Amino acid sequence: MDRETTSASPEKPVTSGSGTRPSRTLRRPVLIDLGEEAASLLGEPQPESRDRNSRTVATTDRVRVTVTALEAGAELGSEESDDTLVVQALRGQLSLHVDGMDVDLRAGQLATVEEPAAWRIRAATDSVLLITVALGGRSSG
């Protein structure tokens, strides 16, 4: 996943950028056109070895919001945070696995995981999703 991390103080978070897009400041409030973000992610060239592309659209010391495009069969999980999760399918079909349960999501649906738990998302089709993850387990310093 193309992770963009903050490199500045919490008051002015800045994404690290990548070879295909420049870094940018994430100022509050941030207005995001999710359709444009999805089209941009799907349109960026990716190495054949990559099955996903992501863009952090908002981040603080407590929460991160990411738009992610996944190819069919791609998976991502709670390796960085197993705290509260909100996932919304913008395009395609996904499966969310948490606490021994599988929840199928299609475009327009949203699932929440309020209690901290390990989770896994798998794309059944080429998909775009909005992921909001609480970062309660991280230290701010």
* Largest pleated sheet: 5 strands, antiparallel
The residue ranges in which pLDDT falls below 50 over 5 or more consecutive positions are 1-10
| Spatial separation of the terminal alpha carbons | 24 Å
Portion of residues within helices: under 10%
What would the average pLDDT be, to the nearest integer?
A: 79
> What's the Cα radius of gyration?
15 Å
> Could you tell me the strand content as a percent range?
35-45%
- Decide which structural class fits the backbone: mainly beta
- The shape is globular
Beta strand count: 9
Give the strand line-up of the largest sheet: 1-2-9-4-7
**In DSSP terms, counting alpha (H) and pi (I) runs of 4 or more, how many helices?**
1
Order of helices and strands: HEEEEEEEEE
Which labels suit this protein?
7% helix, mainly beta
Polypeptide structure, described:
The protein is mainly beta and 141 residues long. A 5-stranded antiparallel sheet has the order 1-2-9-4-7, covered by helices on one side. It starts with 33 loop residues before the first helix and ends in a 7-residue tail after the last strand.
